[in-house]
Amino acid sequence: MFKKILIANRGEIACRVMKTARRMGIKTVAVYSEADRDALHVEMADEAVFIGPPQAAESYLVIEKIVDACKKTGAEAVHPGYGFLSEREAFPRALEAAGIVFIGPNPGAIAAMGDKIESKKAAAKAKVSTVPGHLGVIEDDKHAVKIADEIGYPVMIKASAGGGGKGMRIAHSRDEVAEGFNLAKAEAKSSFGDDRVFIEKFIVDPRHIEIQVLGDKHGNVIYLGERECSIQRRNQKVIEEAPSPLLDETTRKKMGEQAVALAKAVNYDSAGTVEFVAGQDKSFYFLEMNTRLQVEHPVTELVTGVDLVEQMIRVAAGEKLSIAQKDVALTGWAVESRVYAEDPFRNFLPSIGRLVKYRPPEESKYDGISVRNDTGVYEGGEISIYYDPMIAKLVTHAPSRAAAIEAQSNALDAFYVDGIRHNIPFLSALMNHPRWRSGNLSTGFIAEEFPKGFGPRTPEGEVARRIAAVAAAIDHVLGERKRQISGQMNGRAVSRERRRSVWLDREELLLEVGRDNGDVLVRFVDAKGAPRHPHALRSDWRPGEGVWHGTLDGHTLAVQVRRIPNGFRLAYQGYEIDTQVFTETEATSARLMPVGSKTDTGKKVLCPMPGLIVSIAVKEGQDIKAGETLAVVEAMKMQNVLRAERDGMVKKIHASPGSTLAVDALILEFA
After folding, report:
1. What's 88's domain CATH number?
2. What is each CA distance from 10 to 18, 63, 193, in whole angstroms?
3. Long-range contacts made by residues 360-369, C-beta under 8 angstroms, separation at least 24?
4. Rounded to an integer, what distance in angstroms lies between the CA atom of residue 493 and that of residue 483?
5. What per-residue confidence (pLDDT) applies to 122?
6. Is 667 exposed, middle or buried (0-12, 13-18, 19+ CB in 10 A)?
7. 636 and 572 part of one domain
8. Does 430 share its domain with 522?
9. Res 14 pLDDT > 90
10. Dihedral angle computed from the Cα positions of residues 346, 382, 37 and 66, in that order, rounded to the nearest 10 degrees
11. How far is Cα of residue 205 from the mean position of the Cα atoms in its chain?
């Protein structure tokens, strides 16, 4: 077995590999760029080597620097993680030439399967059903339009060397093909150093299901069940689960055996994933093969009990697989949410900055339910503009799908992050969406259920009452603390009114609140002013804590608490709501206060995220129509097109291509 390995990656996946290596008694070496000097993976490793500037193309993607780091530290093998060099055929060849072992598949398998175009050719040769498409070289956008016309709309434009949703566009018309082709090529070049793209038919109402395969260097290949990855936004996975609620055992076996046959055809000898697009009728087509560890591998680990990173290391060291296909059993259900540094209330634009507070839910195993958090950040660290915006992967495992979802929902509610915007409210809302809970999924789920994007919502019904009850309990605890500090007045204990008006934004709920031994009792007041049945809240929450953990009538709750003027901002199940608790006298006065209005910035185009101005598509004095492209901004390896929301004339351009702007920086203004 290896004594020392180098992880040619950063962030969450580098930390994940180090955990397994440490458990196996293997020392680890980290590599880091200037932007990652203080990163968590650098701190976790036994040794660390500086490899260059923040840009990946000058650091993490430079093979020579990785090889040199191995030579300097005596690392015997390299784990590539995912992304970066993990699917570059040249990387394991360079390592082999230097006498270093690659912890991944052999270069031949990467050549055959890692390239999306070549993998489809190999699949077709192996008589695997594939999606109709064009796998040859596409000369330009006109050629792309011609191909799309022949295939039939809609089509998917996809980077050949891609992954993670980068360099992918769905096009429903000729105009969308022309624009999508150029954007996909640019993103592919920026993310992978390879601007080749291909076009294939986009299957309507599809599901994305993938099979985890594992092979060794002795000809053994097995499959470890499937993962459902249909919940996607902009072709990037958001939530994954294992197993899939669509598949039955017969379909699972067919897909698994087909994946194994394909892997054996290319002598695959590591962990890899064969991806399929599946119809709602359980029909399926080969999509691509990822010749690396997947982001979502934890859900497979939890339902199979197999540490995929350990197996990759052992296979690379020449060991045979210790498990056969008959030994693989799927137990329970696992759900993973990808926590990203992006603002769901501003169309998921990237957010960078310092993590002022980072308090994930505790990892635990209790009463058949597991909570796991794979992360590469820490409180006080910074989210950089240069890399993927992932903060963490939150994974729960339970005996059933419903229990795993409920555990995930509670864990997300307890995941406290401040200093940057993040997508936890959106993930929490998804966990509580009826369609998600029913398992009626497709890759169009988010677009269909949130056609206008994700915005602030006002809670109603039972959810509103839960939030109001917690707000009243928090206010009651704060009131008790104030009275303890105040002591007594004129020899008598300070008394307190029981009736309260709880405002969720400007929606009012009337209730009475008081103590009953260790519980806070809340009684909502009906239209006639009569209190209803009491609800008991029990919690050890203390002033200053970011999350209220407790029970409401025995039901476990986690509600995030942030102080705001005259109240709290509470977050629960995807709702973020300004909440105030008033006495009746205070409420009477509050109802008379005017409601403020937002400033109109309709004549200004502001940079929606910290990013690099790739191009400005207009000139001063130019008349433009609603929908026309104004500028392209790149951040975290994604290019975002800014379009005009209304007709107008460009008065002044304040930014130029190549400039780096902060969020809300002025790009241009209209007359």
Report:
1. 3.40.50.20
2. 11, 15, 18
3. 360/392, 360/394, 360/415, 360/416, 361/394, 361/410, 361/411, 361/414, 361/415, 361/558, 368/332, 368/398, 368/399, 368/403, 369/396, 369/397, 369/398, 369/403, 369/404, 369/407
4. 8
5. 84
6. buried
7. no
8. no
9. yes
10. -30
11. 22
Is the pLDDT at 493 greater than 80? The verdict is no
Category of 620 on φ-ψ map: left (φ > 0), alpha (ψ -120 to 50) or beta:
beta
Q: Which of 568, 559, 468, 565 is nearest to 520 (CA)?
A: 468
Domain boundary at 173, 201, 229, which?
201
Specify which residues 130 forms β-bridges with. 286
Q: Comparing C-alpha atoms, which of 30, 55, 26, 52 is closest to residue 43? A: 30
Query: pTM value?
Result: 0.82
pLDDT surpasses 70 at 76: yes
19: how many CB neighbours lie within 10 A of its CB? 14
CA-wise closest residue to 435 among 450, 449, 424, 425:
449
**pLDDT tens for each residue of 530-571:** 888 899 999 999 999 999 999 999 999 999 999 988 789 999
- CA-wise closest residue to 545 among 468, 473, 456: 473
Whole-angstrom distance, CA of residue 152 vs CA of residue 551: 54
Mean pLDDT across the chain: 91
The rounded distance, in Å, linking the Cα atoms of 634 and 192 is 15
**Mean pLDDT to the nearest integer, 607-633:** 88
Give the per-residue pLDDT at 120. 80
Write out the DSSP string of 278-318: E-TTS-EEEEEEE-S--TTHHHHHHHH---HHHHHHHHHTT
Render the burial of 353-386: b for 16+ CB within 10 Å, e for the rest.
eebeebbbbeeeeeeebbbbbbbbbeeebbbbbb
Let me know: does 198 contact 138? Beta carbons within 8 Å: yes
CA gap 321, 531 in Å, rounded: 65
Q: Comparing 85-89, 144-148, 386-390, 636-640, which segment has the lowest mean pLDDT?
A: 636-640
What is the residue-wise DSSP string for 342-408? EEGGGTTEE--EE-SEEEPPPPEEETTEEEEEEES--TT-EE-SSS--EEEEEEEEESSHHHHHHHH
Q: What whole-number distance in Å separates Cα of residue 117 and Cα of residue 194?
A: 13
Cβ 30 vs Cβ 49: under 8 Å: yes
What residue type is 237 in one-letter code?
A: K
Q: Does the pLDDT of residue 488 top 60, yes or no?
A: no
Instruction: For residue 371, give its domain range.
Output: 339-435
The answer to whether the beta carbons of residues 284 and 278 sit under 8 Å apart is yes
For 200, phi then psi, to 5°, come to -145, 165
Identify which of 204, 208, 187, 205 has the alpha carbon closest to the alpha carbon of residue 196.
187
With CA atoms as reference, report the closest residue to 235 among 286, 171, 147: 171
SS3 assignment, position 34: helix
CATH number at residue 502: 3.30.700.30
Q: Which residues are catalytic?
A: 288
- Among candidates 522, 524, 523, 513, which has minimal Cα distance to 480? 513
Number of domains in the chain: 5
CB 3 within 8 A of CB 27: yes
Task: Tell me which of 84, 103, 122 is where a domain ends.
Answer: 103
Residue 163 pLDDT:
66
Same domain assignment for residues 503 and 608: no
Residue 595, pLDDT score: 63
406 and 355 both lie in a single domain = yes
Q: How far apart are CA 455 and CA 465, in angstroms?
A: 21
Residue 119 host element (H or E)? helix 116-125
Tell me what pLDDT residue 347 has: 86
Residue type for position 266? V
Pairing of strands 575-582, 284-290: unpaired
